[in-house]
Amino acid sequence: MNLDWIKVRSLLTPDRIALVDPIKNSEWTYKEVNVRAENLAHYLKKNGVTKGDRVALYAPNDISYFDVLLASIKIGAIFIPLNWRLKPIEIKKVVEDAQPKVILHASQISKRLSLVDASLLSLDVDSKEYNEICEHPNHVPFLSESIELESPVMLIYTTGTTGDPKGAIITHNGMVNNSMNTIISWNITHEDITIASAPMFHIAGLSGMIIPLMLIGGKVIIDRYFDGTNTNEMIKQYKPTMLFMVPTMYYGLISATNFHKDNLASVHTFVAGGSPPLKEVINYFVSEKMPLINSYGLTEVGPNNFKLMGETALQHPFSIGYPSFFVEAKIVNDKNEEVEQGQIGELLLAGEHTFSGYWQKQEETAKAFLGEFVRTGDLAKKDENGLFYIVDRKKEMIITGGENVLPSEVERVLNAHPAVKDSVVVGYEHPRYGQSVGAAIIFKDKERSEAELDQYMTDNLAGYKTPKHYLFVDVFPTNSVGKTDKKEIIRLLNELTAVKTIN
Q1: How far apart are CA 244 and CA 218, in angstroms?
Q2: What is the pLDDT of residues 289-317, one digit of tens each?
């Protein structure tokens, strides 16, 4: 089956601007984007990449995401966007699990690939060589491979229950159906413009709005690294019509010194995804009568599963909305029985847009499904109007600034420190990030060095996974049945770490 959608789009609207990179002072039409992808596909195939191989990219938001993804589709290879925030040892684990044929990488962060087999490092995407490959003047059309809809198009890595990485398999069918759901639900047209601020190594950053917008022929402005001040300037200059950001980015946007509500005059659709909504952000948008859509999703089910717009979004700002087109949602109890209206249970989702399982992890895949439904691990309820609300997480996952952190992974690293007797890691409230990582610590003796502990954690875990505050105790608080009282630890951390909110 012909799934080379960028070639089709380049034939339909060859001269329409597809991508703009302010840092590189460059823009590309759909025809030029397709040519770049075909040139790179020729290069990769010449260097041994074939159908089914994995091709990884380690870079911040950049034109290379589109080059590598679209070239991989043409070859029938599987694209892996690597999280550049991870530490070398974490990247090594992902690479060992995925076994990519090649890794393309950005020069300014390539030092984090120090533990990866150097023979895999194919191209520096910031190099003159890479640009010459993609911009080769003697372009030869590429004959795209025939691909089945259920074939993998991407592996997006998350943290497993043991702390080990697991690659969620996103099929062509899943990617296309998520895009169609998004286009229809949010009324996206070829006239729409967005700024790609969310990290594109996440499913939300890549598939939340960018791929749907490009499928229909819109324009994407590449925001290499989000910064509230700089992004405000980009919004003023490029006048996007749609924005997709994680809540902490909206916080950074509206709290920046150069922010003014008139900056957002061009935007008709605001979408917040990747983590639960922030009260300060919600309150601002409600006060300005600007509907903010709480997009709900996971790597396993795609970023956009519910729809809520206009006046309904203003009236129910903390709701995730109604199930989107072609999405089936239900809430079940511990016996997997559907609950009544208003009752709380686990949210399950089904549809053609969901993932097909975890890469080479059958046991983890089996746990993720109940029949055709994907278990989200989130507790939800549905009101009398049919609106869904996320109440809490069934899993212990901490979501901080759109990034997932597994407490057991952090605890394992903490407990390996020679001075630590035991630890309990929790997520405490934070007005900007939703949650931050905190830890209650019992030391083996009274000699304690918080600075030393901080350095140790920074050396062994990605920055967003490291505890931002410690609670030093002689014993952990316990509840009525004698178990560690995590709610009390969270309460104590909240008291300890009270921070100012937006005035």
Answers
A1: 14
A2: 999 999 899 999 999 999 988 888 899 98
In a domain, 392, yes or no: no
Work out the angle at residue 339's Cα, subtended by the Cα atoms of residues 180 and 372, and round it to the nearest 5 degrees: 40
Measure the CA angle with vertex 54, ends 53 and 57; round to 5°.
145
- State how far the Cα of 474 lies from the Cα of 496, in Å rounded to an integer: 17
pTM of the model: 0.83
Q: Per the domain annotation, does 333 fall within a domain?
A: no
Taking only the tens place, the pLDDT of each residue in 434-480 is 889 999 898 887 666 788 888 989 988 999 999 998 988 888 887 65
**230, part of any domain:** no
Tell me whether residue 291 is in a domain: no
Measured CA angle at 464 (ends 56, 305), to 5 deg: 65
Domain termination residue (choose one: 147, 171, 191): 147
What φ, ψ does residue 213 adopt, rounded to 5°? -65, -40
Residue 67 · residue 6 · CB < 8 Å:
no
Largest Cα–Cα distance of the chain, in whole Å?
74
The DSSP string of 214-278 is HHHT-EEEE-SS--HHHHHHHHHHH--SEEEE-HHHHHHHHHSTT--GGGGTT-SEEEE-SSPPP
Q: Of the candidates 100, 122, 147, which is a domain's last residue?
A: 147
CATH of the domain at 415: 3.30.300.30
CA distances from 423 to 253, 396, 467 (A): 35, 15, 11
Q: Domain containing 466: what range?
A: 398-496
